[in-house]
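Pipeline run #58 for the internal structure catalog. This entry was flagged by the ingest filter as a single-chain record with no existing model, so it goes straight to prediction. Upstream metadata was stripped on purpose; only the residue string is passed forward. Reviewer on rotation: M.T. Logging verbosity set to normal.
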Amino acid sequence: MPKLKTKSSAKKRFKISATGKVMMAQAGKRHGMIKRTNSQIRKLRGTTAMSKQDGKIVKSYMPYSLRG
C-alpha cells in the first residue's frame, strides 16, 4: 500500500497538542485593527483549540500526526 500524503496547507496551519487537540491561530487579526478595541486585539493573541468536529476533519489531512 502506498504512503499517504499529508496536506501541506494543514501542516503549515495546525499543530496537534499533547492531548490530541488541534491547535490553530486565532482568527480575526489580519486587518481592520483600528475598529477593534484593545481588549479584543489582546484576546486574539496566541493559539486556540479547534472544535472537536472540525479537528477530526483536520486530523484526516495529517495521517502521520503522532497523536492523530
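catalog note: The mean pLDDT is 94.
catalog note: The chain has three helices and three strands.
status: ready for reviewer M.T.
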